[in-house]
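Hello Y.,

Per our agreement to keep a running log of every chain we model this quarter, I'm adding this entry. I've kept the format consistent with earlier entries: sequence first, then predicted structure.
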Amino acid sequence: MLSQKLYKLIFWAGYATTLIIAILPIAGDLTKIRFGYGIFNIRLDHLLHLSAYFLICMYYLWGQHRGLILFRNYSLRYFVIVTVILATVTEFVQIFVPARAFNVLDWVANVSGIAVGVIVIKIVEGRSKIQD
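Predicted structure for the entry above:
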């Protein structure tokens, strides 16, 4: 079984890794994905941003399911605050990184991933309370 300390270590290591990746001067062209007849376009990097932050939320949910806690009081509230700070800082620091740029839509995708993740967490928490 995963211990409480290891759970927290993995979370904070992932947090630090995300910050480090944000300051690396890497760039790439991630093209748009077209749905239907081109009515709806989405950039692949926005989908990746959304997915990454959603997966962070699923890690939190997995820990909750296992009885592991990241924050002692108001755990979900602090988790959301810390994760939104990560999403904001990773975009903001890119202003100062060569070959990177601040992009409001990347930030929106980050926060959207968090929002979708929190909705899933709340649904799962609601179902588990019903089953108890």
